Fold each of these.
Amino acid sequence: MEKHYEESIAKVNMLEVFKARRIVERVLTRTHLTAYRRLSEELGAEVYVKHENHLPTNSFKVRGAVNFMAQVPPQVVRNGIVVATKGNHGLAVAWAAQERGIFCNVVVPENNNPELNANILATGAQLIEQGSDFYEAQDYCEELAENAGYYYLRQGNEPLLITGIATLGLEIFEELPDVEAILMPIGGGTGCAALATVIQGIHPQVELIGVQAANMPSFYESWRQGKKVVVPAAETVADGLAARSAFEVPWAILKDCISDVVLLSEEELLEGVRLAVRYTQNLAEVAGAASLAAAFKIRDRLRGKKVVAVMTGGNIRAERLRDLL
């Protein structure tokens, strides 16, 4: 592994998570950890939902963005930043940058979710449509950072993003210290790695169960093969899970401490949104509801346990929601 990745991994620790909490709690309100009786009865477990969809950008990623923006060096404040995104990461960074008065460029692939694009623009960020997918948008970010002097904020490998997101794990343990299993979606792995850091630091016996799209099983295949792999390009209805590979730092954190990875079909992913409405009366994006869908898929394994399903986000296209319901 490259030296700078090793240095980044070393910066993801419980001390930094506790520092991040002091920053995050000044800006963001603690999200609800809600027990739903009907959901628990249906699954035969004591089930709680961690509502990250209630945060200002409707996604857990704003925690990391707030933590990062509070600690950026002066040259970043002066020159501005650039990020590549399909949605939630860019929206989170744009929102947090606006709070600090930092100029933000957000690069999205062409034909990106127009509603997310509009939300990004509403923060005052500059939106740039470039490339056919996230990876081409990333390439353009590299060029823009090199040529214009912006700081390129890479969403997967920045320690301050991971430790900021990890504050959701602290909130879970503070409210439910005897939790036995936590379900968390995995795209590039940042959110799950953040939770793993807290679990390993507080109670390593808690099961961390990742959830991925079967069409894009990048982390699952890496975990199964014992090495980081890149899967072929594919389509999935869960934009937040459409990662062809895990990021280097999250992969290194997760590979030896995740308990299992549940793969969901496209229909199972869509059903998660319906489950969120039916049992919690909450609007979740497809990736955001993946933990609920996974809980139903592995209900026999969860029976009798105290379980937290993290609802990671609520940014869903209106036409998709209409079609689903």
Amino acid sequence: MKTESSVRRVVVLNQYAMPASVGGGTRHVELFGRLKGWQYRIVAGDRDHASQRPHSFQDPHFRLVHVSGYRGNDHRRVISFATYCLGAVVATLREPRPDVVYASSPHLLAPVAGWLAARLRGSKFVLEIRDLWPQSMVDTGYLRENSLLHRALRALELWLYRRADRIVLVTSAWYSYFRSLGIDEAKLEWVSNSAEPEDFDIQPDLIPLRDRCPVRGRLIVYAGAHGPANGLDLLLDAAAELPEHTFLLIGEGIDKQRLVDRARSEGLANVQFLGMLPKRELAGILGGADIGVHVLNDAAVFRLGLSPNKLYDYLAAGLPVVTNCLGEPSDVLTAADAGFATPGDLTAGLRKLADLDDATLKEMGRRGRRYIQDNRSRTVMSARLQRVLDEVVGRVRPANAEQRGPLEAVGGPR
């Protein structure tokens, strides 16, 4: 039996974290919930990122702090970040003293709150990078390079990297970026986004995906954010060229209404939209599609590396996948032999996959699911996170590259 002194505590700061019962960002509850010998509390904002409606869920592993609402990417979003930062520090001070404060980007004020809370509580500070701010803001057109704000955010970025006890990256392709900044590689650890295949078994008590919209031909599904970076106009372009197949877009975002209006105005009768679904519901019906789509607009920051949740969700659900991205998405599909990467021509990849016979598609789906089980499951990645936390508090000696095993074979440290 574990004694109280043998159990370590970690506070996780992520404004947009969600419990597994709700759609959205469930990375942290799924990873930290699998740790051994650790108690965790996730400090999240009290508004849904996509809809901006107040949260109604209650979960003992979550502490919600008030954040101001916003629409779009103006100053009100920055104010929301700031209110979360202040609330997160106060919330951490009210918790029993944590051994580790684990703060996650994308926005940098959450890690600032994490560093401050760790200093005030005498805790270790682990920084998780899920988006390369501010570089991604420059590459997607939200921030002018070398502007005063850009230089200030770049200075803050470097300041945080140098003060973190460890830095967790969702894609190992970023190792070279951090080396270019002079960050000690011994600080870095790869803990990919991931999915647990058993969570994506078809659930008979849920309404099947094919009963939620009229379907003809292949059912091609996109499940994720509907924002400017997500490249969904490319998906509507593909739908226009493949009218014999059905395209279903699931999720929310600031571009959602514009995309709905475009599909209606162009008479794309083969395009259907659903709102965001709770995680369990989406997982329990996703395997009812034929093909999953991962798509992004072309931006320089994505060429540095990415680790897309939806790619792993599709594969865990047994769906073959088409992506328009090179790098890790392409590498994973090649290693799994479970789909195609067609940069520059999403339509060609979808047509190629849709033309395959049912048996071939199902076998591709089985291969993808096996690959996720062995290499990118939540269980596999939680074990990597376990090592990071145990090392940072001195429970185990830091592992060298050889001891870290073969997980880096695809998308691992370079």
Amino acid sequence: MRATAEQLRALRQEVAGLERWQAETTPRRMPLGHAEADAALGGGLEVGRLHEVFAGHGADAASATGFAAMLAARLGGSLVWLRQEQVGREGGALHAPGLSEIGFDPARLVLGLLPDPLTVLAAAGEAARCPGVGVVLVELWRMPRPLDLTATRRLALAAETSGVSVLLLRVEAQAQASAAQTRWQVHSLASVPLEANAPGHPALSVELTRQRSGPPGGPWQMEWDRDRGIFRAWDGGGAALSGPQLPLAAHG
């Protein structure tokens, strides 16, 4: 179906608005705590922007989900987590004890399970326009057709207008044209056991594959310090722990 002249005019206005906000808004940055990653980001992750998180492989889904949850915890404020129902059926439900283990308070979480990509994106746009929200995390199944460049531009504009950070979590998906400020790819690492062989801090291999304001960076091996709520360099060298490193999903 061809777009009407009115639809094209509205799209041009959205794009012009996005470019104007990018030019006029001074970004506020949240340091991640990992020195090399923060240096590559120019001081930290930009707040009030759209960011993408990709799982390197299907087996890295839990780590990518964990990384997105850690970013949300670091950014602060309430979290609106919007999931397509297919994600829960295929990957399992979110596990509140797993969120607690990384230091995220489930009381800050508003979870929405929605039937299809269009509904998820519509809800995400509304949530991202609400200044009272800290972070909107959008989780879609694979490569839905509604998630195109125009959809990401709308999310980016909503984020920049309200100051709400939007995280787009992609599992079993490939990168495509997007208005996201940054794009991250996450792989699992074995954590280093603590004393008495207690489970160690969640460990990740993270690569900044794209950013609009600078070059890519990494990959960096990092771990999450839940007590301080920051990422830090992974010191490695420990024996691999059996089982999933980041138990954020139940029954999946």
Amino acid sequence: MKMKGRSVITYNVYAPTNVICMLRPRRQNGQSIIEEGFNIEPSVPFSEYTDLYGNACQRFVLPNGQVTITTEVQAQVNPTKQIPSPVPGYILVGDLPDEVMYYILPSRYCQSDLQELSNLAFQIAGNFVPGYDQVEEIRKWIHQNIKYQYGVSDSTTTALDTARNRIGVCRDFTHLAISLCRALSIPARMTVGYLDKLQEMDLHAWFEVYIGGEWYTFDAVQEVTEGYRIEIAHGRDAADVAMITQFGNATLQSLHVEVNLLENEPVSQN
């Protein structure tokens, strides 16, 4: 399927502000980038580097006044990968690849080492078969028990906050899911990008878990994990995949996101 994503971000800048952006899509299996655009108005020079997780990061300085950052991507993508039968099982920590170990440790927003979250994880999924069954039970529990609502959480909200308050947005759902999976020694990471199936269009966050020797997508916001996605970035939590990190005096004025499916054209998996 060909899929197009577009985001327009407008800032009011009160003093020159250094920023790191993570707005360009990843190049990876199952996601073939046909074309993309990255534009800053007024135009300023920028540089780019690849972070520890393989995400493309852009660095530049926002000038005084109103600044608009527009990104567009058109890609060939497959629908969300289905869980095979038999379902993937749990991998012992000692058998995990080195590069996966990042995603089994606690992180800034995912305090999987806290007893309260560990107790909740075992309460929800402790009686299920380790691996996929536990992850899916966590995903379903969050979908059914955490209320989706804008304006009740912010950049400081952690998984523990969401577990206690039982309300938040996709970022909060994802942090809680990751924490509960890690509490069961299942590697989990946060992924952000475009999803075609959203009631209120926005840049979206979901989680991926490493089971059966592969990464699989789970989305606690959806009743059933489905749809087409363009991945922009992944990391341990929101600190690793922030859309824009600023070092100065600038205020986000607006964010407009569009997602369109264009035509059927599956991507071959390597």
